[in-house]
Amino acid sequence: MVRYDALDVDTAEIRLLELLPGERDAPIQCKLKTASLQRKPTFEALSYVWGDSTVRRPITVDFDILPVTTNLEEALRALRRLLESRTLWVDAICINQDDVGEKNTQVPLMGKIYSDATRVVAWLGPSNPAIELAVSFTHFFVEKRYTTKSLNWLKLKLIAVFSDRARAELLLAILRALEGYLEIANCPYWSRMWTYQEFVLPRDEPIAMCGKLEFRATAMGELYHLINKKLNIESLPAGLAGSEKLNAVAKQAEVVRKTTISLPPTDSGFSNLVSVSVSRDNKFLGSTTSLSTTSLYFTTMFTARRHCSEPRDRVYALYGVATEARAAYPPDYSKPVEQIFHETTAFLVNNEGWFPISLGLMNHSALPNTSYPSWVVKFNTFDPVEPKLHSSLGPSVLKSHVPRVSDDLTTLEVPAWNLGPIRVVLKFASNTSSVLLQMREIMRDPTSSWLARDTLVRNSETLLSRIARLFIACFSRKSLQEYFSADDVVDWYRAIPRDGMDDDQIEVLSQKRDITGLCVRATKEIVGMVLFTTKDRGLLGIGDHGTKEDDILTVSPRGVWKPLVLRAESDGSSEGAVGYYRLAGKAVVEGLMDEGDVDTEVVEEFMQQKLERFHIH
């Protein structure tokens, strides 16, 4: 057990790890020493993921045995030099993880640690031949860096001009480089919370390491599209058909194709890798957006799909970037998680003017928890339904018309247009196969006999295509909608077999990059949700699981990117009383979302109304 001496908080003391030299296979030996950040010590900071905490390997620290995760032990082994020591800062060793008080004082220093380090090393894991090809491809084609390995690409290009077989060999090498890129993009490093700020904060981009291989990870962002440009398997001469080289190319292309389509469209290492590149560019080159890269809102959205084992780190892992939030609510690991989420939601609303509804509500499904307000955001979940209100809604509204949390943090006040009460039309089933059959029956019934006769629906003659567009808006990005029309979606659901699909079929079909994949993925996202209309205007919408009859649909002009579904708590009928609501969830509404065509008639109609102020508990 390592013996930790107390650190001087007043002088911003930290511990540094001296990694002693040794042979590749020799045991890892280290020493700890203290240093004040005020004296600007020289050290490298290690950025990495802990990995499986149940599997550990022993290292020696100050002659004591310290079990560390396998990933950390491998990183130290790769970093160790043969003849000289190396001074590092490594969180798992330099912070006493068993001392909550020390963590509360050291975590606020981590932003400065990574900003002030001489160099930051991002350990991604071991290397392999495919990763080596991806790195050398990036060096040659993206960075124009000429090394022994990157010049091999020049050799391959020249020979391919004169030989069809060499062209097949070049294509095979490119495919293997793409495979290596996908391995890099899907390293666990890019999916963890803490590594976001560790990669974004340093003035100089961290050096990425796979094994002993060093490279710039952000240069990889261009590699994927560049490789796709250079791949042209169909142009190979017919004389190569059945040849060993072409068979190898075709086989590798199929492997890469399967790997690529298996990446969830909105939850891949690629998107996380791109996010740190964008964050670094905006931070150091200047942002052209209205959101600051140091805002808590910006960072929570960019890290929403990352993971951490300690739920408090959904917030605290961003404090190195979001310094204003850290000053308002310093890290305290003794606080209940719910309190941290409560305070953070209030900070986002009051200090940055945004209510982060897309990050998921703590109580939105059944509103069971009355000890915290219904509007508290649960930062360790992310809503897969991504569309936002269209940007044309309320651009001229006064800046004062933003949501606000009361000083006692009990009430969220939201200025919004009241679109009236909801009528629940259909509750979607609790599993994908049943929802597919529900959709089949809806789309095969042009008379809409499933709809109650007294239900008000705008333009009922186009109901089916509007439902289809609404489904697309719930899930897809605009780029997908360019390829598939509402009629395509209607026809696809109509063609579902009468006996439906089993879970294995659904999983396979959801991976497709065509109309089938789009519809299956969209269907998976609406399981358990509610199809509704508004009683006053007949607008179609899809609401969260907890949406009920007579809930109120509201649209806010600023600070809330989705329609809110509210449930009356009291009607305020007594003189001078204020009506209060609970937040039942959020919705996607036809004609109002960024992913579809705006219904200007509806927008103009409700924007002429006076904004109401809804008080939400």
UniProtKB/TrEMBL annotation:
<dbReference type="Pfam" id="PF06985">
    <property type="entry name" value="HET"/>
</dbReference>
<feature type="domain" description="Heterokaryon incompatibility">
    <location>
        <begin position="43"/>
        <end position="198"/>
    </location>
</feature>
<dbReference type="InterPro" id="IPR010730">
    <property type="entry name" value="HET"/>
</dbReference>
<protein>
    <submittedName>
        <fullName>Heterokaryon incompatibility protein-domain-containing protein</fullName>
    </submittedName>
</protein>
<dbReference type="InterPro" id="IPR052895">
    <property type="entry name" value="HetReg/Transcr_Mod"/>
</dbReference>
